[in-house]
Amino acid sequence: MEIVEGIGIGIAVVLAALLILFIRRALFTRSGGIIRLSVRVSTILDGRGWSPGFGRFVGDELRWYRMFSFALRPKRVLSRKGLAVERRRLPEGQERLSMPADWVILRCTSHHAPVEIAMARSTVTGFLSWLEAAPPGAVSPRLASQDWPAA
User: Fold this and answer.
1) pLDDT of 19 above 90
2) Which residues pair with 82 in a beta bridge?
3) Are 81 and 135 in contact (CB under 8 A)?
């Protein structure tokens, strides 16, 4: 009888965890302004360390949430005011195996440290528009380099 109870409790816990993941995803995606986004969380091994997730634009912030996490808070927050794009490149080596073929990697600098983010080529234009958005008359030095290779 104890084994059956243990199995029942285990199944209930797994179902509750799945329910929380689906509710979390539904809450974030219903409000719009969501993009698929991978962030490089570790640079120890070349071409590795990418974590899938999604970004949500909230005012002057891009909030990144890990795809497989129970956390309701973002794992990383990038402020538009302190963010500049250094360069753009296509996935290389091992990176081609960990992300879709049409994705582009942006190396950015922020107040805290350099950060690499990857997103679909079609999403880059919207991201750069959000990054460049500024009040009328303001000069925006967000793009550090205009000599990007054609992607």
Assistant:
1) no
2) none
3) no
Q: Is 100 left (phi over 0), alpha (psi -120 to 50) or beta?
A: beta
pLDDT at 57: 86
Residue 53 lies in a domain: yes
Q: CA nearest 119: which of 7, 25, 16, 34?
A: 34
Average pLDDT over residues 70-96: 85
**So what's the pLDDT on residue 135?**
54
DSSP string, 55-119: EEEETTEEEEEESS---SS-SEEEEGGG-EEEEEE---TTHHHHS-TTEEEEEEE-SS-EEEEEE
Number of domain units in the chain: 1
Domain assignment present for 92: yes
Residue 10 lies in a domain: no
In a domain, 20, yes or no: no
pLDDT (average), residues 102-115:
87
Whether 35 and 58 have beta carbons less than 8 Å apart is answered as no
Tell me the CATH number at 97.
2.30.29.30
Q: Which domain holds residue 83?
A: 32-132
Specify which residues 62 forms β-bridges with: 57, 78
